[in-house]
Amino acid sequence: MNLSSDFKHDAPVDKRKSGSYEWWYFDGADNTGDWHYVIIFYEGCPFSPEYNKKWEDREETKAAEHPAISISLYHKGAPVFYCMSEYNEKDATFKKVNENEIKIRVGENKAHLKLEDDMLNHTIQISERLPSGDELSGTIRFQSKLLSSLFKQSGKDVSHSWNLTQPRAGTKVQLFLKEAGKDAREISFMGTGYHDHNTGAEPMKNEFRDWYWGRFHFKDSTLVYYLMPLENGYQFRGWLIDVEGNLLEEIDGGSLNNSNTNLFNLKCANKINLSSKNYSITIDQTQTLDSGPFYYRFKSMAELKKGSIISDKAVGISEYIYPKRIHHKIYWPLVKMRYHYVGSPHWVQKSAFFYRWTW
Fold first, then answer.
1. 174 and 33 belong to one structural domain
2. Does the predicted model carry a pTM greater than 0.85?
3. Is 347 exposed, middle or buried (0-12, 13-18, 19+ CB in 10 A)?
4. Are 162 and 1 in contact (CB under 8 A)?
5. How do residues 228-276 score in pLDDT, each as one tens digit?
6. Cα dist from 316 to 28, 37, 102, 197, whole Å
7. Which of 12, 83, 118, 122 is the most exposed place for a label (fewest CB within 10 A)?
């Protein structure tokens, strides 16, 4: 994996090869930890059954033909809005305006990424209506100082690149949620957000077997970790970053414990131990937010120790993915119940009751 932390690498890249993909990831939480959101804009969605079918059939297709957005909004660990919507190519734009500005649109959902002096000011505008009748609209803002580079690009010829430009940002949220059969309600809060950007030149299964990822905002620092498989075990990598965006310490050790298995027999660890010269961190996957044939998302608790003393605790988002299973055709009928092709929804998505069952 190629690592970087440079805003200029947030700009869209050329993706001519079938199976390539790119996504811009944003998440955040209020200061109480009751509300969490995850929003991802995709050009070439790696979870699209139709995109993967074309790749498997060696049919010529491009990432631009499969733009998508996923939006997850959670209250006290329970989903209150979810979508994974793929739009037509004509309904999406991914544009580098100049060196300091990027504009993304998928349907009526937009992301405006902007560098002003030494500040990153990103704005997300949400406007998504589902066949079930659920609607979510509003604005989310991110603001943080521009990072000095946390690590240099490796320069290796690898498929997947990860760009961490905003590990910690102030976020201001004003959303309007209308659940089918209910009155609209306003959701407004301030809190802490996170943003990164991923690109791949071929399907993820060709690059790695699986990966663990997560981030936690402590009072004085943010932890971001990325665990990738090696021939024997895992490579444990993580970074403790202070509130000004400076690297405090790099994580280089750890272990995985206590296997977790869902209905699809997908296994992952529900306890992760990370270590460095001065710190140790224990992560417990305390609450499952999303569970499927190839993917988990958790609301997790992290405990930070400096030496033998517990210095802080934090609630955060962590994930696990097993990309090979994305291409197992046996799961595609289930995926299509959740995956919304705008203009031709699955019958399950037209029912608020049945669609929520897929969450």
1. yes
2. yes
3. exposed
4. yes
5. 888 788 889 999 999 999 999 999 999 999 888 999 999 999 999 999 9
6. 9, 11, 27, 19
7. 118
The answer to whether 95 and 103 are in contact (CB under 8 A) is yes
**3, 110: one domain:** yes
CA distance 159 to 335: 25
CA angle 191, 296, 151 (to 5 degrees): 60
Interatomic CA distance for residues 162 and 10, integer angstroms: 10
pLDDT at 58: 93
Q: Which residue has the tokens 């499969």?
A: 66
Helix (H) or strand (E) holding 31: none
Report the domain count for the chain: 2
Q: Which two tokens stand for residue 322?
A: 């097993």
Contact 73, 138 (CB under 8 A): no
What would the pLDDT profile of 139-152 be if each residue is shown by its tens digit? 999 999 998 888 76
pLDDT of residue 308: 85
Phi and psi (nearest 5°) for 336? -70, -20
Same domain, 180 and 273: no
